[in-house]
Amino acid sequence: xSTSARVRADACPGVxxxxxxxxxxxxxxxxxxxxxxxxRLLALADAAEDLGDGALHLTSRGNVQLRGVTRPxxxxxxxxxxxxxxxxxxxxxxxxxxxxxDVAQELAAALDRALCADPELAExxxxxxxxxxxGEGDVAGEGTDxxxxxxxxxxxxxxxxxxxxxxxxxxxxxxxxxxFLRTRGTAWRISELADTKPLIxxxxxxTKEPQSFETRPGxxxxxxxxxxxxxxxxxxxxxxxxxxxARAGDxxxxxxxxxxxxxxxxxDTGLIADPDAPSLGISACVGRPGCAKSLADVRADAARIGxxxxxxxxxxxxxxxxxxxxxxxxxxxxxxxxxDGAFVPVGELAKALAEKGSAEVKGQQ
Length: 365
Known about the structure:
Elements: E1 19-21, E2 24-29, E3 35-36, H1 38-51, E4 55-58, E5 64-66, H2 74-81, E6 95-97, H3 102-116, E7 130-133, E8 146-149, E9 152-155, E10 158-163, H4 169-183, E11 206-207, E12 222-224, E13 227-230, E14 236-238, H5 239-248, E15 251-253, E16 259-261, E17 282-284, H6 298-303, E18 311-314, E19 328-333, E20 336-339, E21 342-344, H7 349-364
Parallel strand pairs: 6-7, 7-8, 17-18, 18-19
Antiparallel strand pairs: 1-2, 2-5, 3-15, 4-5, 4-14, 8-9, 9-10, 10-11, 12-13, 13-16, 15-16, 19-20, 20-21
Helix pairs in contact: 1-2, 1-5, 3-4
């Protein structure tokens, strides 16, 4: 039984059901596990340039969005590129996977195939989120509905005590999804259910005492073996930057608006590759003028901030794109911002966030 009643339909955007933003239709393209081949990345870059605003906008679920898609033909391009394997399932292919875990990445691909092969699961809400964590604790803390974490099955972030080996992980996660469909009522997320025990009932596996797992969200920016992790400013990847990544090889888009490039990346792309770059800790929704609900040009205001603690700038109370992990909440008002609930004029934002950062450092000492 659901603990809350939804009074409106799930309007999560996709390719066929776009969102009418102030800057034009917004289309979201799912990338299960974040994995994308060089050829498919080139196809997205071409589509963004030919049909949209010329950029790929990374999301907090490891997907990409195209904004201002005012010209037709996007779906046909994506089908030809293999980015829409099942049009009926395109909004439910929400799968996170640890970027550095081969096991998690392989399971994400298998989960996507099995998900798309089940007509019943096309009815999942567009917000339902799967995750496959190789044990790093990176995606397990990203607000997922059901997560396989190196054998442990988690629901809404909590360990159930159920242990399932990798070879049965896909079946276990899909069993949970089917049980959710049967019992969800009006709920969109597992966290909205009063009782989650029925969701794992009957799933084969070992049962242990539930435990608390540590989470370590994020991917280190910079070289990682033969790969390199980079971040576009505010998650906006230009078509030129996407092509540069494609020339380097395949890639993995992460839920932290960064990209793991699996080959040698050419210099001077404008992508952040320095782990000490001040802007790495700051994220922002699209703000004005792209969103009619936004009360400020939050990206312009955020860009004027120097080094700061992890913070998210939001143009309205919806707080689109906010990180799942701890951060400073910077919410636009008509004449300034609320920084963790306290009003701060625009001109004093840098000082307020610097003070937040100093307090955070002292608290860790």
